[in-house]
């Protein structure tokens, strides 16, 4: 019986994720809401001049590699939190909970949606960059393998954080605001757009605790020339350490997030959704 209910839920989730992804292109507002950041970062990188003295690598290429990591983190963390908080308020989550294996279908649908949005955002950023940005090159076979595991581990490491925050924040309009300030702080201490070795050593140690540094390091190893490793800690891409730290974050997140989500789902009721809608209407007016 469980298997009989599970397969339709998974299929419904896959279909729902694809439909929601297609709806991202339904209006110009939706398109820019999801993908404008890619175009903005591409424009900024194209206008930057100069090179890093120690490597000769163009500043624009380094900036674009950092932008790739930033967009990946934003898509996998902030979007998850915002969508989850919004669908708690409008009753979507409650309706999913009422269906057989509904939460499984909901989870599959959101996973498909977020992954497709993330990959599209990266494609919009990267494909023109390979042609327009000096020093930013398309990965060969070996680097392509690195890109796949970095992106996969990155999403597994940061998406559960977004799910936890989305479960705790009752106002979806606060979800982005709650996350952006600490996210910007992490971006600065992680050396997202500049070598982390320019920062004080204690900041370097702090930055290496969080996944954003390792995501950016892995992506720089994929897209930048070999000479750029000269400004990294230990003059190494440290792939093993990157996989280890991102893996730890992923394991912890995938243990904690389902527990938080289950507790949040148990608390949902028609009365709570109606109260949330009334609060949303009061904010609108």
Characteristics:
285 residues, mainly alpha, 0% strand
What does this structure look like?
The chain is mostly helical. It has one domain (2-284). It is built from eleven helices and no strands. The longest helix is centred in the N-terminal third of the chain and has 31 residues, at 59-89. The N and C termini lie far apart (48 Å). The relative contact order is 0.14.
Number of helices: 11
User: What is the molecular shape?
Assistant: globular
Low-confidence spans: none
| Strand element count | 0
Compute the CA-based radius of gyration.
20 Å
| Strand fraction | under 5%
Compute the average pLDDT.
Answer: 83
Q: Give the SSE string.
A: HHHHHHHHHHH
Q: Indicate the structural class.
A: mainly alpha
User: CA-to-CA gap between the ends?
Assistant: 48 Å
Q: Number of folding domains?
A: 1
Largest sheet: none
The level of helicity is over 70%
Which helices and strands, and how do they pair?
Layout lengths: L1 H22 L4 H20 L11 H31 L2 H7 L3 H31 L8 H28 L3 H18 L11 H7 L3 H13 L15 H29 L2 H15 L1
Structure, briefly:
The chain has helices spanning 2-23, 28-47, 59-89, 92-98, 102-132, 141-168, 172-189, 201-207, 211-223, 239-267, 270-284.
